[in-house]
Design brief:
Length: about 160
């Protein structure tokens, strides 16, 4: 099922607290490539936040691989979260050197291997930086501002 655009009335009625979540829930992973740049930005940046806030960058890459990691860098830049984009780019470099596809598959299939992957976690410092809102940026507020400033990317 493709992204289901909001109507202008729906977009206007949504409170800011739910705005980015509503867009995220309407983006379908199967059709992400045909989504607008704004839809991709909301989807990819929220996915990073969900995963990192739940288990750090280690969990993000184990659960998503590298599939949306470059999209997340672009998404953070698009919404104006340049410090988060830089942080994500640094995390991507670590992940590219750490996670061969077969290693990721092993971690996804075995809980003990997954738990062991947190020992000597090279993402520890990046996780801490992420939690402290680098550059004083708040991605949620920046996503909301982007959606409100570019409604044409989300309504149809």
């Amino acid at each position: 099922m493709p992204y289901q655009n909001l109507t202008q009335l729906e977009l206007g009625a949504l409170k800011n607290d739910n705005l980015d979540i509503e867009v995220f829930e309407r983006v379908n992973e199967n059709t992400i490539e045909t989504s607008t740049k704004g839809q991709k930005a909301i989807f990819a940046t929220m996915l990073v936040e969900f995963e990192v806030n739940n288990g750090g960058f280690n969990q993000y890459y184990i659960n998503t691989g590298m599939e949306y990691s470059k999209m997340a860098v672009e998404g953070f830049r698009l919404i104006g979260a340049s410090a988060f984009a830089d942080l994500m780019q640094r995390a991507n470099k670590i992940a590219e050197s750490r996670y061969a596809p077969e290693y990721l598959k092993k971690l996804q299939q075995n809980i003990e291997d997954f738990q062991t992957s947190y020992k000597d976690d090279p993402f520890d410092l990046l996780d801490k930086e992420f939690y402290e809102f680098p550059g004083g940026e708040d991605p949620k507020q920046l996503r909301i501002q982007y959606i409100r400033a570019h409604p044409e990317e989300f309504i149809g």
